[in-house]
Specification:
With 386 residues, this protein is mainly alpha-helical. The chain has twelve helices and eleven strands.
Length: 386
């Protein structure tokens, strides 16, 4: 088992370098600044694509984490490049908060305010604050946090509601999604590590309890994904990747808070969520994307990010339980990734494959695909196995 741990650690350490190297080499926009907003499946960047704030945040967080873990100057420089673009173009200069996107030159195209974009921005800025402490960076993060609390937080029923217009007028106040709550949770967890504010502690604790008491389905141990404003569950979809992701991120939040009761509860939840998500694990080690429990429809795609989250969740479950079956399964999922998800011709990871292992013809990079899930899984597993 020690040999397996060592081999997995070494291979994932190399892969983290491969992923960040790809984004530094092939996605840097030397003409207009920042990074390209899109790249096709065959590795052709689009120099005139829109640049999403979420993608910029993903890039910033990934390179900042890489700089922290390895000390490599090139990762620090890439993170600084992403931060400069984010600061100059993703922050709304009039109403505050993070705009949705800009054009290739940094001119705002869609100014709406999405809660999950705010959460991911907090995650990125807090990670950069760890790598390169700055009053400016922390000031930006505090401002985003304050606006999120002021306009998106539900102080009566808890959690965070949907999108707002540029001047913070509500657009989807009747909807609460687990995706928003999870990205805000990770943002608050990271921010609390660099700014242990009492108010932030309170809101992070409340959000964590929402997952434990309302979002995790006590009958199935899967995450419920959509709710109305009163936390009445809507829909029957299971997202295996989000189950895996939440399993370790809930534990991380509880440990950041140092709350013994929540640590115990999230350790139990981590194993329940991981075991439930393993229902979506195919015999080849790959994870299906999602399923509908009412229609019994399985979306037969194995996308890149659930594979990454599965690896990390399984290593976490192994560390929590001591059961080697989880570590063995993590190794099998890594083998699946190596065989079917790594794009050895064009670099980085493919969007995914279908049931016949044919690559899905989706972008290599864009609004919904950055370097975060896969580089984070690699770096976090390396850290845990050292």
């Amino acid at each position: 088992m020690e040999n397996m741990q060592s081999a997995l650690r070494q291979s994932l350490e190399r892969e983290a370098d491969n992923i960040l190297g790809f984004w530094d080499r092939d996605m840097t926009d030397h003409r207009f600044g920042g990074f390209y907003g899109k790249m096709s499946a065959d590795g052709q960047p689009d120099p005139f694509a829109l640049k999403g704030s979420v993608l910029t945040a993903r890039i910033l967080q990934s390179f900042a984490a890489g700089a922290l873990q390895t000390g490599r100057a090139e990762w620090h420089a890439a993170a600084e490049r992403a931060y400069t673009w984010f600061r100059d173009h993703c922050i709304d200069p009039e109403f505050g908060g993070v705009v949705w996107d800009t054009d290739y030159a940094g001119r705002c195209q869609d100014p709406r305010k999405e809660p999950h974009a705010m959460g991911m921005s907090l995650y990125a800025l807090a990670t950069w604050q760890k790598a390169s402490p700055s009053t400016e960076t922390l000031h930006l993060a505090k401002g985003i946090y304050s606006l999120l609390q002021l306009y998106a937080h539900d102080p009566v029923r808890g959690g965070y509601t949907g999108a707002c217009s540029r001047n913070w007028q509500p657009e989807k106040q009747e909807v609460k999604s687990t995706f928003d709550q999870l990205h805000i949770l990770e943002g608050f967890t990271a921010l609390f590590a660099v700014w242990p504010d009492d108010g932030l502690r309170h809101h992070l604790q409340d959000l964590l309890k929402l997952f434990l008491d309302k979002i995790i389905d006590p009958d199935t141990n899967h995450l419920r994904l959509f709710f109305d404003a009163d936390w009445q569950h809507e829909g029957h979809v299971i997202s295996y990747g989000h189950d895996f992701q939440a399993s370790w991120q809930l534990m991380q939040a509880a440990e950041a808070l140092g709350d013994a009761e929540l640590i115990t509860r999230t350790r139990e939840a981590a194993l329940m969520l991981t075991d439930a998500a393993l229902e979506g694990m195919d015999t080849d080690g790959g994870v299906w994307y999602k399923a509908d429990t009412e229609t019994k429809h399985l979306l037969e795609e194995k996308r890149w990010w659930p594979q990454a989250e599965a690896m990390l969740a399984l290593v976490n479950a192994w560390q929590v339980s001591g059961s080697e079956k989880y570590l063995v399964q993590a190794g099998e999922t890594w083998q699946f990734i190596g065989q079917h998800i790594l794009d050895r011709a064009h670099g980085e990871w493919r969007w995914g494959v279908d049931r016949h292992y044919q690559p899905l013809n989706m972008e290599k990079a864009g609004f919904r695909k950055g370097p975060d899930h896969n580089s984070r899984a690699c770096m976090e597993i390396v850290r845990r196995l050292q």
